[in-house]
Structure prediction request, 345 residues.
Amino acid sequence: MINLAGGPSQIDTWDPKPEAPVEYRNFDPACVTSVPGVWISENLPGMAQRMQQVALVRSLFHDGPATHSAGQQLLLTGQCFYHHETAPSIGSVLSDALGRRGDLPANVVLGGRLTSDFIADGDGQTAAGLGRQHAPCMANDSAARNTSPLLNKTLDVQRESWNMRRQYGFHQLGEMCLQARRLVERGTRVVTVNQFRSVLDQTTWDMHANGGRLNSTAADYRATLCPQLDQALSGLLDDLSDLGLLSETIVAVSGEMGRTPLINSHGGRDHHTGAWSALLAGGPIQPGVVVGSTDACGATPATRPVTPAELCATLLHSLGVDSSRLTTMGTRWAVVDAEPIRELF
Prediction:
C-alpha cells in the first residue's frame, strides 16, 4: 500500500474535470491514457501509458470528520475510532491471516509512523488485539535495522543497479517503493509506504496554499509530487511485472481524503471527504477497469459510491482472505460489514 498521506486532489491526479467552471477545474491539463475514454493529469504521463495495467476507483468517500486522523484510520483499518480506542491495521490483519513467510517481518511500514497531525486518537498502524507478533515493523527506525541484519540488507537499495534505482527515482518515494519490492520479493507479506509522516512545514499532498505551515500548492503537484509518484509507481509496476511478481502482489495507492473542488482564496484546495480516487493493480484485480464516477465538479460520487471499508475488504479478498470470518477479541471489525468491490474482479 502506497499511502499518499495528506490527501491528494482527485481533480489534479486521477479524476480531472477539464470542462468544469474555472474555479473548480484541474490546474493543469488532462491527457489521454492507454484506456480509451479515461483521462488523467498530464503530470502523470508514465501512468497514462500504463492505465491498461491498473484499475481506478474514482468514487471513494466517507461521511466522517474531514481530518487526517479520521481519514487515515479509515484507510488503514476500515473504521474510524476515538477516545484512544484502536483497531488492527490492514497490514496486521493480513499478517495474522496469511502468516509469516521467511525470516523477514511479515508486516513492514516504510517512511516512519504517522505523527500527531495525522493521527489524534489511536494511530491506525497497530495490531490492536491481534498481538505483538502482528504489529508492523517500523523499518526505518534504527532499532529495527540493528536487530535484524537481514532486514537491514534487504532495505539497502545500494545493492540494486544504478539503472534500477534510476527507474524508481532518486527521491524518497522512489527509494521506498524499491525497498517495498525487495521486501515482498524476499517474503514480507505486507508493506505500507507512508510517503509523509506529517503535513506540516514540508511539501505534501495537503495543498491548502495558505502561505504558512500548510503551503503546498498546485505548483508543487506539477513540479514534485506528481512527477515523483509517476516515476516511482511506474517503476514499481514495471519491475514487479518483469520479475513475474505482479500476478501475486497487490499494489494499492490512495490518500486518506480528497480536496475541495472549489479552489480556495489562496489558490489551493482544502480537505474534502466527499470524493477521492484510489488505484489498484496486480493479482486478481481486473486491469483497465474504472469503478465509479464523480459529478461534474468532482465533489461527490455520481455512480457507485465506495467506502474505505470496502477498499479494505477488497484488499483482503484479493489475497484470498474471507473478511466475514475474521474476529478479534470477540468483536467483529467494521471491515467485515463491507463487501469487496466486485467490479474489480
